[in-house]
Amino acid sequence: MLDRIGNCRIIGEIGSGGMAVIYKAVQEPLERVVAIKALKPSIAVDSQFAQRFEREARFMASLQHENILHVHDYLKDGNTLYIVMEYVQGIDLYDLLQLTPKLPVDVAAIIALQTARALDYAHFRGIIHRDIKPANIMISHQGEVKLMDFGIARDHNLTDLTETGTGVGTPSYMSPEQILGDKLDFRSDIFSLGIVLYQSITGHKPFVEDEARTVMQKIRLDRYVSPRKLVGSVPSSMERMLARCMEKIPASRYPSTQNLIDDLMEFLAGRVGMNHSARLVMYLRDIGVVGEKEASDILEAGAARSLPGGHRDRELTRSATLVFGATFLALLGAGGAIQASDGRFSAGAGSYQNRSVHTLTPDNAGYIRVVVDPWADIYIDGQRMATTPTAQPIAVTPGRHYIKYVNPYFHDKRGEVTVRSGETKLLSVTLEPKKEPAEGSAPPPSGTARR
User: Can you tell me the distance from the alpha carbon of 116 to that of 347, in angstroms, rounded to the nearest whole number?
Assistant: First the structure.
């Protein structure tokens, strides 16, 4: 393995493909951790693969967007080419779907939304990605979505590197016109993103080869199975978005990538009551990709960054900081006196729903950690305590507690839990969606239950 590339010290190899190897390295003058994509020595520098490699570097360097992987440098050293890129600690969507083949619909929609924003930025500059697939979508531990690999992207101002009539891309995610080798525009990327979103929500690709037809024939000629037949809880509004993305005729798809973004934003408005990146961090934590401490640190740092500038992460800030505060306020409202003494909180004697109130300190509190699909306001013994996803467990007095889960678009759910001192109880709940309003009727205003 190489020790150095340019001014970068190689730490180790982190991936390898057909034409390139990716290393983790430190760019020493800046002490910046980077990823270096190196063309394999077996690939000639004057080959078409090398031209694509160089084009990828130029495209990505010209696209400065938060949802596109950044390029820092491009190097030629003898017979080898290198792209020095932003290093992202995370997991790509392909590996995420190997861990959990079906994502919650709000998580899948957030990933699609951030990917669509990256595509809209590229499309505005005349660049078509042409290889949208799960392996090219990275989700960082900070809840950021990054679009990668512009190796076969096409700029309408440049000549194509493929011959007319040949398809380039990954067959399962190609658009019908891409399979036919027709001239492409941004609507081809929209079709491919629709396939990725369908797979993320249902756990299945919409077009799969069988004995009768190849996958490319099915994309061109066949209708996919309705996602609601695979997952009954898929909202009809999501089903309509998928149908519009995957229309066979490009003119029938979304007229712009921004229109798709608008629909995804409207879809998420009533379903995700917090910052979208925070929701992704919580999901990565819940499935074990991100550790509990790392997730807490990321969310607390995000909440702190939002404090000077306004309301962006207000829901996250409130949820992440009310570990003891919400319980104390509930006790105070029930007649208890709260005092601070020697840095420890104590609750004076009083009654709360006809129960004795214990002295609540970090030493004798019990904890409830709640995971709700898709999200809910959490009421404990009649008091609103948090909105999920929340970074911290909720501190409660030892004993029995009654819990209510409220989301305006889903049926309320109730339960009870008994918690002992020092114990943390994990509650995992899936809400049942209400019947969607008739077409044309006004949806409930976003966030009404959270104000």
Answer: 50
Of residues 439 and 304, more confidently modeled = 304
Least confident of 17-21, 303-307, 357-361: 357-361
DSSP 8-state assignment for residue 190: H
Angle of helix 257-269 versus helix 236-245 axis, rounded to 10: 170
**How far, in Å, CA of 96 to CA of 118, rounded?**
20
**CATH number for the segment(s) 4-86:** 3.30.200.20
Residue 385 CB-density burial (10 A; 0-12 exposed, 13-18 middle, 19+ buried): buried
- CA distances (Å), origin 218, targets 156, 179, 249, 271: 28, 11, 14, 33
| pLDDT tens readout for residues 403-436 | 999 988 889 999 989 888 888 888 988 888 887 5
Question: Nearest-CA neighbor of 407 among 303, 271, 236?
Answer: 271
Ranges for all domains in the chain classified under CATH 1.10.510.10: 90-269
Q: Given 92, 106, 131, 149, which residue is catalytic? A: 131
As a CATH number, domain 90-269 is 1.10.510.10
DSSP single-letter state for residue 75:
E
User: 20-27 and 8-16 as β-strands: parallel, antiparallel, unpaired?
Assistant: antiparallel
Task: Give me the pLDDT at residue 13, please.
Answer: 92
- Residue 189 is a catalytic residue: no
pLDDT, residue 163, reads 42
Query: Start-end ranges of CATH 3.30.200.20 in the chain?
Result: 4-86
* Tokens 């658009």, residue located: 175
Give the pTM.
0.68
Distance CA 407, CA 329 (A): 23
Residue 370 φ then ψ, to 5°? -120, 130
Q: What is the pLDDT of residues 361-412, one digit of tens each?
A: 556 788 898 988 888 889 998 888 888 887 678 888 888 888 999 988 889 9
Length of the chain: 451
Question: What mean pLDDT comes out for the span 78-100?
Answer: 92
Buried b (16+ CB within 10 A) or exposed e, 393-426: bbbbbbbebebbbbbbbbebbeeebebeeeeebe
Distance of CA 37 to the CA centre of its chain: 24
Rounded Cα distance between 132 and 193, Å, is 6
